[in-house]
Amino acid sequence: MRVQRVTLALVCLAVLAIGCSEDRVLPTQVTAIAHADRESGCSIVTSGWIGPAGGSLALAGVRLQIPVGALESSTLIAIERRADGSVELSPDGQQFAAPVELSFMVAPGLDARAQEIQWFDPQSGVWVDIPSIASGATRTASLAHFSIYRITLFE
After folding, report:
1. How far apart (Å, rounded) are the C-alpha atoms in residues 79 and 50?
2. pTM, whole model, 2 decimals?
3. Residue 38 carries which DSSP code?
4. Strand (E) or helix (H) holding 14
5. Which residues contact 41 (CB under 8 A, 6 or more apart)?
């Protein structure tokens, strides 16, 4: 049991190291934390303060771009990459004066044009397709609010 937890924690840290690329624009006080436990598996979190000047966060194949003027004040923004591959953006329900962009890098060997981005609707308990655009190895959607999102093959 202990060996499994240590192994899972090491895998989380490896994914964290790969997912935190150097090409991102960093807001102040960015943190990245790997969580591992038996119940939920492995999740990785990064966060940073982003304000009216805009900014971006990136983590494990996910990039969030917040444009100038989208936020009225400095806000602690977080991306959590969950064990099931979904992404939770917080603060939950955060709304914006201008759309923000959420981009997923597509797994090697898959075509971004054959993928779609969905958000989880807690009212109905189902995943809902949202408009998105494929460009190279990424799929990008414009968001009006934060929630839980995922990339999946077209059904």
Report:
1. 13
2. 0.73
3. T
4. helix 2-19
5. 8, 82, 83, 84
Which residues fall within 8 angstroms of residue 51, CB to CB, at 6 or more apart?
A: 71, 73, 74, 75
Residue partners of 22: CB distance under 8 A and separation at least 6: none
- CB hemisphere CA count around 78 (13 angstroms): 16
Burial class (CB in 10 A: 0-12, 13-18, 19+), 111: exposed
Where are the alpha helices (H) located in 43-86, listed in sequence order?
Answer: none
pLDDT digits (tens, 9 = 90+) for 32-51: 454 444 445 678 899 999 99
Q: How far, rounded to the nearest angstrom, does the alpha carbon of residue 96 sit from its chain's CA centroid?
A: 17
pLDDT, tens digit, 9 for 90 and up, residues 81-112: 998 989 999 999 899 999 999 999 998 888 88
Rounded to an integer, what distance in angstroms lies between the CA atom of residue 96 and that of residue 45? Answer: 21
Partners of 90 in beta bridges: 78
Q: Which amino acid is at 53?
A: A
Nearest in space to 153 (alpha carbons), one of 108, 110, 95: 110
